[in-house]
Amino acid sequence: MSAASVEQPYEDEEPFSLTAIADEIMERHPGYRVEIIGGHLLVTPSPDAPHARALTSLMVPFLAAGLHGEETEVLQNVGLWLPTAIEDYAIPDLVIVDADIDDHFVENNAYDPVCFRLVLEVTSSNWRDDLKTKVTAYAEAKVPVYVVVDRKHQRLHLLTDPKGGEYGNHQVHAPGQVVALPDSIGAKVSLDVTALLEAGKKKS
Asked: What is the pLDDT of residues 117-144, one digit of tens each?
């Protein structure tokens, strides 16, 4: 799946709302994901089966640890309101949020980043966005933990300690390693890098 960055197409005194353009794209192309980051539209087609399979595999340890319950929830494709620009928002593949997330609704189906404990992305052909653009955006939003399952380079990235638009701690893990996530997500969870990367590959 690929992603396109679309800049504001009008130079009028009263430019079109990027949010309105995003809504129109989603209406015309059901299944597409549209995000606004740094004043740019990121348009991503529906994920393929290996991408979805990796997400399902990722949910298992979070659910087993009891993170989908009274204090926290494990959710997919929830809008995260970003402080980077007035219309900015992202839609991470998977999130762990406080269970009172409904109380933190902002607008446009996006929620205040204060209730997000972890965001996670599984890369596709738009891997540069996950490894660069969204790193800055999620750090600006002060999301405590950002995990990237990097199918392009067969790595798992764990980013923590957001400050000043970047993460102070960025660990890269290779197949064969087991990664312990910070306890701040609400429970002890470890991710098997090999198993996740294998789940994200096309079956022969």
From this structure: 999 999 988 899 999 999 999 999 999 9
Residue 98: closest CA among 67, 58, 56, 135: 67
Q: Is the pTM of this model over 0.85?
A: yes
* Number of C-beta neighbours around residue 198 at 10 A: 15
From the number of C-beta atoms within 10 Å of its C-beta (0-12, 13-18, 19+), residue 26 rates as middle
CB 147 within 8 A of CB 62: no
- Tokens 């319950």: give the residue: 69
198 Rama class: left (phi>0) / alpha (psi -120 to 50) / beta:
alpha
Closest CA to 79 of 106, 56, 57: 106
